[in-house]
Design brief:
Blueprint lengths: L10 H24 L3 H21 L3 H27 L3 E2 L6 E2 L2 E2 L2 H23 L1 H26 L3 E2 L5 E2 L2 E2 H22 L3 H26 L1
Antiparallel strand pairs: 1-4, 2-3, 5-6
């Protein structure tokens, strides 16, 4: 179990992450109820992403800085996974009436960065309190429930949806739930490694996470579609 102090891990930052996570969930719920369309996804995504950078720089928080770098790199590489889901297996659908990069909305890398930051921060807390193994298991289960919540809300919000030619749980395919669980499983280990090395290593670990997202999607679709 980790006992040394982690720079940037404090009560104020914990509160900021928890409150901002709640805001994201609340915004998604309201957007779903109002069927507000892609513009609401862009507003909350860019707003949160800019806020996290402001907080990291304003308060010189090294943990949030690293998580942002990690999440941004992984989020950019997730565009490959989106292309796989949209064009290779023809499962994921975006409305298309928005700015796109390759097969994804322009905001998507930053949306992934926000969610990876939130989950990774929780992973840091759990690792410090309960150790790496427990943190990985808990985050795996939490990620398998937390991210698919957005998948469920996104359809009614008009952000994205899935062809229902696979096993579904509400509006989320079973393979997506398995994929998100696998992604979350990796976070405590990678983030713990990033804490102990240079920022350049954090970039490399973001690349590793981006590749793992694609592998997780492939594995999950193979075994659970």
């Amino acid at each position: 179990m980790e006992t040394t102090k982690i720079p940037g891990l404090d009560k104020k930052t914990t509160l900021v992450i928890l409150v901002s996570s709640g805001i994201l969930i609340g915004w998604s719920m309201v957007s779903s109820l109002l069927e507000s369309g892609p513009v609401s996804a862009s507003i909350i995504t860019y707003g949160l992403y800019c806020f996290y950078w402001f907080y990291a720089i304003r308060y010189r928080n090294p943990l949030i800085q690293r998580l942002l770098v990690f999440g941004t790199i992984a989020g950019i590489l997730e565009l490959v996974t989106d292309h796989y889901l949209v064009d290779t297996i023809d499962s994921l659908v975006y409305p298309g009436n928005e700015l796109m990069v390759w097969s994804s909305p322009m905001y998507m890398p930053f949306a992934w960065s926000n969610v990876l930051l939130q989950l990774s921060f929780v992973g840091v807390l759990l690792t410090k309190k309960k150790g790496l193994l427990v943190a990985s298991i808990v985050l795996c289960l939490a990620g398998g429930m937390y991210i698919p919540l957005y998948e469920h809300l996104a359809k009614d919000a008009g952000w994205w949806w899935y062809h229902q030619n696979v096993t579904m749980i509400f509006n989320a395919p079973l393979y997506v739930i398995v994929c998100e669980a696998l992604i979350s499983l990796s976070l405590p280990f990678l983030i713990q490694y990033a804490e102990r090395h240079t920022i350049t290593k954090t970039v490399y670990l973001g690349i590793v996470e981006g590749v793992w997202i694609l592998l997780s999607a492939y594995i999950a679709f193979t075994i659970a579609h």
